[in-house]
């Protein structure tokens, strides 16, 4: 273990770290937005759009991010859609994450019991009121564990961006190892880099899960 | 002359090929309390849920205030504001406080003035000794307390008929009496029209005016309450009361 190696690599890792955090953040927020939209289309069984949403969710969840990125970055330019590696990475991550998030929210909505829905119906609610006041507040709370799992999953998936040469954490480490053959130092730094991101995220998600599950329901 | 509020005529309901309700006909006068009794699986709850549009039916008619109910979601949404329902599992909304539970439908569905409904809600909560729990969440309350709130939530809609689906079935025995008292008072003081499904014969005997006895989805007899418990017309009802140790 050579400390000067670590020291010299710090700025490069700093850049990679910032990029990983930024890509994750944009990807997660985008995925939640896409996921909410897709799950709402499915919930309300909007004609045609709900079928499109279902097809999208299945496609997103059943293809690897690696292949999605190859399509975006290498295949799309063939038909004239050229994009930077960062853009391809973000679109890919949101495409993938949106499917997973949609599935999580749908699971939450389905977890709201029939008797709760009957109870809303018996109060004369129409289907929008039922969704707004009964299904969504409880459904989103129920989908929190899935949402938390997806957030962690998406952060880890950013490591695949290395295949389209986005200089995030993993790419930085692999690059440096390729140049200087110091795998011990560089891999250790890589692990620490991810730990610095993941540990606070996990703590935050656990806190949020507890708060949503109990706080809102008065415990 | 008491006004007829609800009439059911030749109602048939199927689950797939299996017929759950056979040719059900009866009527309900304003202020009347009808108990639907019968063994498990006789279709009591199914019938009650049908009267609130929570179950569909194949043919027959439900007539409310002399007008035939068209079995469409929109029509049922309107009628449910007049025919309230209380469930065995209370089903208060867990993410809302007691007061929010009560205010939700009157303000959002009926679009009534919030301050006015809130005042009424406090009044109703006082009647069932729950006013001090207005800002409490359902999970902090006992089953009996939750059921009181569920009754108030239904009353706040100002319904003309209330359907009570086994409302004491999940409660501890010492809570049952309190809920029965509330129903009794609703009948005596407010002349509320109610239909109740229950397995507790005492409850039916205390509050009902008429008993509708069902078996296998058929009406076996409809008898004034007192007579039903002393001299039921059918052998099947006699047997049932004996089985229930009554």
From TrEMBL, chain A:
Superkingdom: Bacteria
CDD domains hit by this protein: TM_PBP2
UniProt keyword annotation of Cell cycle present: no
Pfam families given in the database record: BPD_transp_1
Alphabetically ordered keywords of this record: Amino-acid transport, Cell membrane, Membrane, Transmembrane, Transmembrane helix, Transport
InterPro entries named in the record: AA_ABC_transptr_permease_3TM, ArtM/GltK/GlnP/TcyL/YhdX-like, MetI-like, MetI-like_sf
Subcellular location: Cell membrane
Cellular component terms per the entry's GO annotation: ATP-binding cassette (ABC) transporter complex
Residues passing through the membrane, by range: 20-44, 89-109, 130-155, 186-208
Membrane topology: Multi-pass membrane protein
MF terms in GO: transmembrane transporter activity
Signal sequence annotation: none
Record-level GO BP terms: amino acid transport
Domain (ABC transmembrane type-1): residue spans on this chain: 17-209
Similarity remark: Belongs to the binding-protein-dependent transport system permease family. HisMQ subfamily.
Protein name, entry field: Glutamine ABC transporter membrane spanning permease
Species assigned in the record: Lactobacillus gallinarum DSM 10532 = JCM 2011
Automatic annotation (TrEMBL), chain B:
Domain ABC transporter, residue spans: 6-241
Gene Ontology MF, one: ATP binding
Record field: transmembrane: none
Presence of the UniProt keyword Signal in the record: no
Keywords assigned by UniProt, alphabetized: ATP-binding, Nucleotide-binding, Transport
Protein family: Belongs to the ABC transporter superfamily.
PANTHER family noted in UniProt: AMINO ACID IMPORT ATP-BINDING PROTEIN, PHOSPHONATES IMPORT ATP-BINDING PROTEIN PHNC
Protein name as it appears in the record: ABC-type amino acid transport system, permease component
